[in-house]
Amino acid sequence: MQVLVLLLWMGALLGHSSCQNTAGSPEEGSPDPDGTGAPVEEEDPFFKVPVNKLAAAVSNFGYDLYRVRSSMSPTTNVLLSPLSVATALSALSLGAEQRTESVIHRALYYDLINNPDIHGTYKDLLATVTAPQKNLKSASRIVLEKKLRIKSSFVAPLEKSYGTRPRILTGNPRVDLQEINGWVQAQTKGKVARSTKEMSGEISILLLGVAYFKGPWLTKFDSRKTSLKDFYLDEERTVRVPMMSDPQAILRYGLDSDLNCKIGQLPLTGSMSIIFFLPVKVTQNLTLIEESLTSEFIQDIDRELKTVQAVLTIPKLKLSYEGEVTKSLQEMKLQSLFDSPDFSKITGKPIKLTQVEHRAGFEWNEDGAGTTPSPGPQSSHPAFPLDYHLNQPFIFVLRDTDTGALLFIGKILDPRGT
């Protein structure tokens, strides 16, 4: 069978060490940071746009967060909307003095971009990715301990750039949980489930990031072709799940021989797309793929994939996540925020981060904007029909094409999982 092979890491690309060499590469044409004055590789023009550059930075934070979460959950699905967590951290940095601000900015890769108006640019980023046609609901909030006197000099820029105001707890766990649940329901139009977990009575600073996405494909699936099919959990175990099918799907495709995975990309409405990473073998560990994920790598993929016609099957998916990412952030060199930070721009009282909560919902089904298009003039036609069956564990990335922002990322080991 003819296979389209794309060598995604050649020439200007720097290999799979990219997870250490991410948004941290120097500006194009700038002197080598070792002081030799030697020119460094030119930067992709896409990342010269301030909003795109910022999106790459916070997305690289998102890939870092995903890797930590995935390593903590080696045998279960992972679902994250890292942008909502990054937004909460970025907003919190407005209340931090220099030492603590630097800790947050390094985690978000802000120290590697030259932007004097980070928060103003973040406002533009949020406006782009949450535009109505994007079908993304994303919001973040800072919740503070009861009876805290907050400085107006913190509230004003927070509201200006992030469109939110801090919430002060009442001290009544039932009332506080009810209020937070109400806020989550309002932000996601009731699509993210209410939490039934009790509020801790020891909260100093709680960060809350919520997100929901259900967007139509650019080309809808025929629901009459959806049927129960085998999904291979491993070599020996299978489960029957609803699988959508399209025998003449148009997708963008490539085979990464280094990662030993087949990469497929399907467009959604609103300049969004989902990129799938499907290992060639069901027994293959996903870690190597995960370690390669960066904004730059995904942008390279987006540029290199070729349009093909394929026999496509994909499981219907409806996932949700509710829980803390506190421990994950502590492992990402943010421990000092939980120990002895300086948030004196928020209040005169010593406060510290105690909890970071994330709630997310994500689903796709047959819904689409139109019928099957004909292949474009630049599409490739393998000698034999190309098969792309997402019938075994895979990773997906939901990306905003306009900015390159990572909006959702998931590891699907069992499509039945919540």
From TrEMBL:
Its main location: secreted. Keywords: Glycoprotein, Secreted, Signal. Residues 20-42, 364-383 are annotated as: Disordered. One of its GO terms (cellular component) is extracellular space. The keyword Thylakoid does not apply. It is found in: Secreted. Residues 63-415 form the Serpin domain. The keyword Glycoprotein applies. InterPro entries: PEDF_serpin_dom, Serpin_CS, Serpin_dom, Serpin_fam, Serpin_sf, Serpin_sf_1, Serpin_sf_2. Residues 1-19 form the signal peptide. Residues 371-381 have a biased composition (Polar residues). One of its GO terms (molecular function) is serine-type endopeptidase inhibitor activity. GO terms for biological process: epithelial cell proliferation involved in prostate gland development; negative regulation of angiogenesis; negative regulation of epithelial cell proliferation involved in prostate gland development; positive regulation of neurogenesis. Belongs to the serpin family. This is Serpin family F member 1. It comes from Prolemur simus (Greater bamboo lemur). The gene is SERPINF1.
